[in-house]
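stuck on this fold:
=====
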Amino acid sequence: MSDHDALDEVITMRGMRNPKTTHISTLAGGFRFSQKKQLFFGVGFSMFAADDRWFFQGDDRLQLTSQDIYGLGTESVKTAATNMKFNYVRIYETAYRRVRPGLFLGLGLNVNSHSNVRPGDGSPPGSDESPFLTYNRTHGFAPDRQTSSGTSIGLLFDTRDNAINPQGGWLASTIYRTFFSGFIGGDSTWQQLYLDLRTYKKLSNDSRHKLAFWLIGNLVTGGTAPYLDLPSTGSDGRSARGYIEGRYRGEHLVYGEVEYRGSLTTNGLLGFVAFLNATTVDGTDAGKKLFDAYAPAAGFGLRVLLNKRSRTNLAADFGWGKAGSRGFYLGIQEAF
């Protein structure tokens, strides 16, 4: 995340489990405080039971933050942004059961809660021209709070050797989420389809050079989502390097990235990456269609190996997007 000083820790765990039949589990926690008085705390985990019989995945966040809010679609202009402050709680928990080697079926609970939403720095209170307030008036959402709560069903196919820093294999994930009005404070009933596809191609026999590919589809398939829960760039915390979180937002989002990963030393201690990505977003209210316009970005990064067995890297990335957008990103593990 750009403009943040970050401290992240990743713990890899296998215990006494057979490494030939059980993938490495990870637990990642982060605490951030920015110069913009933004406070972030989050915990994410991917836990495999013995012999991969069960897989548990979680993404839990608490944020006291602010964000520039733009119009919908990939052509939204920077000068039209308004700043808002809000408190954000996210609880995403999913339990997967293995149905065959590499294939898992899961059920989950999903809660997004934005509260104490108010004008931020430089934004006049109650501005009628704000895309956020216009969307709320059109669809009947409260301007000071927005909550989406529901359940999910997911299908996961994962043949990667290591989720922290894969050398090969595929990940294909499909998650269908249904949010319900009145369920744990939910404001509306709507549905979301999330698609995630990743693969890795070695360019050398010693795995020192490879290409990584990533494709995301984040689609509202029915109902009306609250504005702050619409698909947006960087909402997963790692994609769309070159743009701030929420820079582009709409009912449907498609994202693609290719990254070259290389080693600067023979022992793998130091490495580098170079990446290209692009996002397209629509906005029904704004009359913008998917694939009408794109938000491309490019950048590079440096890597320092922290754990040879799990191949965990300290990652520092710089990214540049269109219209002067840019960011610096510091974290543990690869972006994907």
